[in-house]
């Protein structure tokens, strides 16, 4: 269930964008988090032994295991959709901290839940 190509692909405008999002998710492992995104209609594919890439039209992130119950998240998000991503993580019941960066690597915003 944690692998699915049924969801929408990342919009072309974000394909070449540099990573602008990083964060940490607590309380769930990478497979469990990927499964939550798939349940919300996102695509998911394995990217390493324990990592996943999940995406929708406005966001593509890598989920990498830090330890049994912590997941590192990094990738690209439409900056106008950061609150939607945070809301989705809150609905999942995942404790999170996200950081959004500009093109120069300057921190624009932090959000946690």
Would you give an account of this structure?
By secondary structure, the protein is an alpha+beta fold. The protein has one domain: 2-Layer Sandwich (TATA-Binding Protein), CATH 3.30.310. Helices cover 19% and strands 40% of the residues. A 7-stranded antiparallel β-sheet has the order 2-3-4-5-1-6-7, with helices on one face. β6 and β7 form a beta hairpin. The longest helix has 11 residues, at 82-92. The protein is globular, with a radius of gyration of 13 Å.
Please mark out the parts with pLDDT under 50 across 5 or more consecutive residues, or reply none: none
**How many helices?**
2
What is the arithmetic mean of pLDDT?
A: 91
- Beta-strand share of residues: 35-45%
Could you tell me the radius of gyration in angstroms? 13 Å
Largest sheet: 7 strands, antiparallel
Euclidean distance between termini CA atoms: 26 Å
Compute the number of strand runs.
7
Helix and strand pattern: EHEEEEHEE
How many separate structural domains?
1
CATH architecture: 2-Layer Sandwich
Q: Biggest sheet, strands in spatial order?
A: 2-3-4-5-1-6-7
Relative helix content = 10-25%
